[in-house]
Structures are given as C-alpha cells and as structure tokens.
Amino acid sequence: MIDPSLDLRSLSVDRIRQDLASRRYSAVELITESLRFAESANSWTNAYLHFCHYRALAAAQRVDQKLHQGEDPGPLAGVPIAVKDVILTRNVRTTCGSKLLENYIPPYDATAITRLEQAGGIIIGKTNCDEFAMGSSTENSAFGPVRNPVALERVPGGSSGGSAAAVAQGSAVLALGSDTGGSIRQPASFCGVAGVTPTYGRVSRYGLVAFASSLDHIGPFAKSVRDAALLLGAIAGRDEMDSTSAFAPVPDYQEALTGDVKGVRIGLPREYFKNLASETGDLIARGVETLGKLGCEVREISMPATEYAIASYYIICTAEASSNLARYDGVRYTTRSSSSETLSDMYRNTRGEGFGAECKRRIMLGTYVLSAGYYDAYYLKAQKVRALVARDFSNAFQEVDAIVAPVSPFPAFKLGEKIDDPLAMYLSDIYTITGSLAGVPCMSVPCGATAAGLPVGMQILTRHFDEAGMFRIADAFERANGAK
Ligand code: GLN
Fold first, then answer.
1. Is the CB of 317 under 6 A from ligand 1?
2. C-alpha 219 to ligand 1 mean position (Å)
3. Any atom of ligand 1 within 6 Å of the Cβ of 180
4. pLDDT tens for residues 22-73?
5. Which domains are assigned to the chain?
6. Measured on CA atoms in the order 109, 111, 117, 123, is the torsion positive or negative?
C-alpha cells in the first residue's frame, strides 16, 4: 500500500528514484495510485482521452523486477508519463483529438515512446488535444475541451493542453506534447509548467502524426527544468526511421545545470515587447531583471521579420496540413461514412463528417495557397519570409547567446472567448511561431502569476542544438525565482 501522506503533485524524477530505491513504494503501487488520481481528476479537467492500465502496470512490473534483481531500471524508472494523443502507441488507441480516428489502434510505437519505455518511463494515458494539433486552446478537440487545472473556467492553452494540464494537476510527473507553432510552450505558460520545443530534428518524428512536417516537433512537459531536461535526454538523438532526425550527439543535459549563467549574453527583441498585456509584460520584465542579477548581460536586439511570421506560418502550415491530411480518406485508418453510394461520395462524406471546422478551414486554405495560380504568390513568398525569420535568428546569435521573450501576449483566456474568432486565436501564437519557423530550441519556463493567479511563462531561445545552454539559463532562473 502506498503511504497516504504521499502527495503525487510533489513528485519529481529524482524523488521517485530515491523512493523506489528505499522501497518506500513499488513502481506498481505508484502507477496504480497515479492512474487512480488521473482518472478522478479527469472528471474536472478532461486532460486525458484514455488510460492504458494494462500497458502501464506491465511496464511498472518490469521496473520492480529489475529493482528486485539489482539491475539498473533506467533514468526514468517508474515515472508516470502522459502522452499527447497525436503520438502513436502500439495497441493503444490514438485519436489525434479527431472523430475520424476515434477507433484507430496503431500497429507500432513512435520512437519517442520506445525510448521512454527503454528508460523505464511508464505511459499511463493519452492526452486530449486540438484536432490534429491545430489550435491554441484545446477547444478544437472532438472529445470536448480541457479545463485549465489552475483556473477551471479557462483554457489550458493548446494544442497540447491535455499534456500541460496532466502535469499541472499532478497526475503525471512528465508528459510529451507536440509543437508546430507553439503547442508546447503556450500551454506550458498557461498552466504554469516547463515546456520544451527542441531543435527541429533533435527528436525523431517517427510515429508523430503529421500536421506540418517541416515544423513538427515532439517535446517534454515537466514541473521543473531539470525533469524536462532528463526527459529530453531520454528521447533525443538520431533515429534511422526519421531521415530528418539529426546526427548531432546528445550531451548530458544534467551536467549543463550548473546554476552559473554569469556573462551569458541575452537579447531582448524589441519587436516582441509591443502589444503585451501589462501584467504579462511586467512579469517578463521582472524575469529579465532576475537574469541580470544572476550575472547575465542583457541587451536589446532587433528581429525585423517578426511582424510577418504569423502570416508566413499560417500559409506554410496549412499548405503542409492540406497534403498530410489527404490520407484520411475513409479507405485507410479512419472511420468510414456509411451513407455513400459512390467512391467519391464516400471520400467526401467521410471527410465532411469526420473533420472539425478548424481542420476543414486549414485544408481549404492550404489547398488554395498550393494551387497552380497562387503557389508563387503565397506559398513561395511565405517560404522566403521563413528564410528571413531564420536569418533574424542567425544574426541575433552572432551578438547574443540566448533570446528572452514572452510566450503569449496574455495569460490563459476563458473557455469560449476566442473560439468563434480564428484570427484572434491565431494571434496567440505571435511570439512562439518565429522560433518554430527557424527550428531553434525554445522553451517556456514559469515566471510568476498575475494578480488573479494566472501563470505566465517566459520564453528562452538558443542556437540550433544548444538545448544545454537553454536549460542552464532556465534552471538558474527557476532556482532564483523559487528562492524569492
Ligand atoms: N496554435 C498553432 C496552430 O494552431 C500551433 C499549433 C501547434 O503548434 N501544433 O497552428
């Protein structure tokens, strides 16, 4: 029996390792309790779409067995992990938040999943998200929205809102999300947890259901920077199943967490500090002050292409999405519409009945920008702008080691507040999209809360493959902020 005084919300990866080693509880006991808590908390947050009891308990048993035999159970041994439902899990339903994939059972695991389990991590369930990861609030899920555990009448952010909520409510110690234009950082900021988008190619996309392939990333959520770094270390690295995964060696991220950031040059892009809600702006300004006190050299920089980033992103991502989503045709994977006489009716009805409004909007927009007459005017232009955004980053990184910026212009908004205004929703991504377009590592680290208690995250971005530098700054900041 697990000690009733144990607060699941206080657990960290290190703490679980110590507790398992001292036999305070077994992995099976911990996972049983986590599942129980996650299921009961789900009635108020709807963070999970389904749980995988059998798989979780079998994995926990393997960890207990290894401990019993004196073998090393791995760096994530016994840790309860929630996984966004766009990442494939063998024999465990993977819906992508879509009615179309309501009954889809994948025949294989994503590489990130295989690596997590090899490291001893325990997948307890699949988390709710915007349909095919399109959205900024998790309200586009076909299975109902997620509520922010910090403020139940508000959104948790999106599209990985379920994963952020699962960690914030304490039912999972770690979670995986996916980020195409901000879907890890923005919900992390809204829910008050750490969320990391690694360098494009750092983590294999094999088994991540594609939204916009040139922008899709898998990345971690955790309560602390240290835990997020541990999780990234377990899943990162070249995978021959994804030709875009990078050969770059993966350093030991724990070693980077020295707390020493003296002399680190930080750039604040002038273009990012306009149009911020005042409390968000004040909190980030205080965060920057803390970094200054830690010995960072802070200076203003300029990233002039920023204002075109949203327009470029919503052309590129819709173009790629329109192509990627063409595979859901009622022939493979999906539920098929039963009311059709001809083959083309079957395609049309399956897609018409299955996709939600946001997916349809993006398929139409993407098909339009790729069409013969408009390709040069829109798609090609957007790619050129993307190159300019990337150039802004390489120029900036000649001058500074890291960029600090807001994550979102405002804290968590109310459920229903923006759902009828897609453009207002798209503007939530204004500060996260640039890092995605450039493919640089970026993360959100909690930096305080508004007077109403709504969390606000601060974004840290570094050079390609310098996740270690990013973690060092975020960890030093987290310690200093916690100590206040
Ligand atoms: N909110 C952005 C969008 O709707 C980003 C989504 C994501 O990163 N998956 O496209």
1. yes
2. 14
3. yes
4. 999 999 999 999 999 999 999 999 999 999 999 999 999 999 999 999 999 9
5. 8-256 (3.90.1300.10), 265-304+386-482 (3.90.1300.10), 311-376 (no CATH)
6. negative
